[in-house]
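Reopening this ticket.

The earlier resolution said the output was attached, but the attachment link was broken on my side. Pasting everything inline this time so it's all in one place.
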Amino acid sequence: MEHNMILSASGWRKIFTENNNEESKSKHIGLANRRLCALIGETFAQYTIAATQKKSPVIAVATDTRPTGSEIADAVLRALLCRGIKVHFLSVSAAPEIMAYARTLDGFLYISASHNPVGHNGIKFGLNDGGVVPGSEAKKLADSFRAKCGAVNAEEHADHLLAECSESSLKKVLESSAKYKKQALAEYENFLGKVITGFDQKKKQDKIFSEIKNALSKSPVSVLCDMNGSARTLSVDRKYMEERGIKFLSFNDNPGQIVHAIIPEPENLVHCAKAMTELQNSGKTDVKLGYMPDCDGDRGNIVYWDDSSKAAKPIPAQEVFALCVAAEISCSIWSGTESKIAVAVNGPTSMRTDEICAAFGACVFRAEVGEANVVNLAREKREEGYSVRILGEGSNGGNITYPSSVRDPLATIFAIIKLLAIRDSLEHDGTIRPGLFHLWCIKSGQENKYKPDFTLSDILASLPAYTTTGVSESRAVLHVKTEDKGKLKLRFQKLFEQEWKERRDELKEKYGIESYAADTTNGTKEIKNATDWNNGNGGLKIRFMDSSGTNKAFIWMRPSGTESVFRVMCDTKGIKPQEEHSLLEWETSILMRADAIGKQ
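Inline output:
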């Protein structure tokens, strides 16, 4: 029995519509996919029983708002119940919401394909630590599922799982959904307080929220959300923001009202920017921030009102993450909780994050692409004594703020709100206590850029300038034929080393590049200055240095773990689009020739 699923640590995905059209909004998945879902449910049931050593573990199950979610859920629920799992079914839930709720249970199974097109769907698995299962455990799940699909009687066994489930048990689970959804929302709200403030104690949380609310009462900020029919339509966004002094407006806010592409990249943030412009023109000048979540609501990139140009503009994903890094480290210093600060990121996160961390004396550690890899790296570094408050995949935008183990647009919005709201204050002894943006300016040697009436435009202008390939650009996605990506990288290495000798003088003259070094990432491990570029399906980065050995650009590559594509990108210090284009074209040219050698 074939499954045709991409099985990665961050989740399992495929096109689930029966017509196999990735853009289809059909809700029907067909018998073959129902059978796969039954085997998926049984796989996780057996894993959870073994991991918890409980006969009947309690897990949360939910979907995002994709049309195929309900039929996938039906098949998965039947298999889970058939194997003795107690299920709290939330129906539609945002990923950060179900993961916060799962901390009170034994685990979760979440039905979503994140930012993939609407016809795709998938599964994320986790226990009760608030994140997806780590790579080694994900491999166990994948191996078990493959074995089930490869069994001689796989189809008959799947049919048995679907038929054996008690209809009364399934009905009871569905009827209890509203009760558990209410519990999940309450747990999520409670957990958000810890995430946004960095404190477990309610009194300390209230102090920071009071600071924000007081500031916004004097200088109001409204937040606009293009829900695009996502799972956040049924989450806490409006209630949570309005209770903390932030006015909230939204559109496309009916669940499942997916009116445009799901990925929250600049080409899809234009809808939010247009709506913000209309509101500004109608006199609602406090509408200064906007966001658009993806379908599962764990990622949301940002639109802001640029006071200088009087225009609504999307903030590129890499800048969103950099902005949040500056905000959260500044807040740690402001609140007196800083100690051995570190940030965990993926390989293609822009070097602008490294510059920000260097200003604060913080360390940067890198993992392979994949949210699970970054989360696990942060855990490892905490065990080594580091304080890893913020982590994430800068290449995709959004941020993960500890103790959360998943991206959350509310964490992103509040990071920016904190930068805007927590300003200089007068202490009892008459001294000035710098606010967050002022702290960043001091630490980065830019105090001359600070002014008391600063705006978000001023904050963005103070961030290190880089030119970076966008993850959703057509230039960032290649289709290669070579199946063994390690061998492809070895051929790339040979060609690159040959061309480096030929182009060295040209690169020095044009871009000031005098040397290079390669870094590889697999899981949570990074090898700096690697001599062997064959690291299988992991990430490969070539850093380019100037005469002083300072990094000034990099090119990066990795086969996608969730799509059948090969991803590339370039990051260049400064506003240098020509240099970024040239280096990326060079990387692409060598890769395509390396791929062609493999076809000969």
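Reporter confirms the inline version is readable. The chain has 18 helices and 24 strands. The radius of gyration is 24 Å.
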